[in-house]
Amino acid sequence: MTKMLYAVVVLMAAGCGTSGTATTAPSTVTVTATPPATAAPQGTATPSTTAAQPTTAAPSGDPAACTDDQLDVTNAPVESADTLRRVVVTFKNISSQECVLVGYPGVDLVTPAGGVLINVARRPANAAHHLKLSPGDKATADVQSYAVDTKTGDACPRYGTLVVTPPNGFRSRTLRVDLPICEATVSSVD
């Protein structure tokens, strides 16, 4: 009887163990290098560092991504509709070669001294348009901000200067336009 009880205990203990080997799926880490910051010219705001979104490789035969040096960045006048303020930002290919622009620009609203008041984080470029810009072609993005705090309904007490970094780019451009700083959004380039 004790031998049978011992056998039952051994079999029960064996059933409590795991029957397979646990495996861990390999992980992938993506590292995006950002070039070192350069000193801003006198009187130019230096916005917060916003990591550029990694861009997917262009299909074979597509031109390279637009670089900072290939793009001129300008703005239209501020448009007002009730409490919403809107600025259209234009990215013009000033180079002699076709290039691709994909994603969302980086946007900051800064103080006159260059302190960041609002940073609109770049969104992933997965669903953004894939635009081929020939020399002289333009793409636009909308920057919108509210003149009131959407949570309280109070008027925004301060305005900030618009600083834009092109999609695929690293060099920020200060545009001569002031927007309320309560909240801001940016569209992808079209």
| CATH architecture group name | Sandwich
The sequence of SSEs as H and E is HEEEEEEEEEEE
* Number of E-type strands: 11
The overall number of domains is 1
How much is the radius of gyration in Å? 26 Å
Unreliable runs, pLDDT <50, ≥5 residues?
Answer: 1-57
* Derived structural class: mainly beta
Question: What is the fold named in CATH at topology level?
Answer: Immunoglobulin-like
Task: Report helical residue fraction.
Answer: under 10%
SS field, number of helical segments: 1
Q: Mean pLDDT score, rounded? A: 74
Shape: elongated
CATH C-level class: Mainly Beta
Proportion of strand residues: 25-35%
Explain this structure.
By secondary structure, this protein is mostly beta strands. It has one domain (58-190): Sandwich (Immunoglobulin-like). The protein is built from one helix and eleven strands. The strands form three sheets. Strands 1, 2, 3, 8 and 11 form a five-stranded antiparallel sheet that branches. It has a four-stranded antiparallel sheet with strand order 6-5-9-10, with no helix packed on it.
Question: What labels describe this entry?
Answer:
four-stranded antiparallel beta sheet, 1 helix, 190 residues, 11 strands, elongated, Immunoglobulin-like
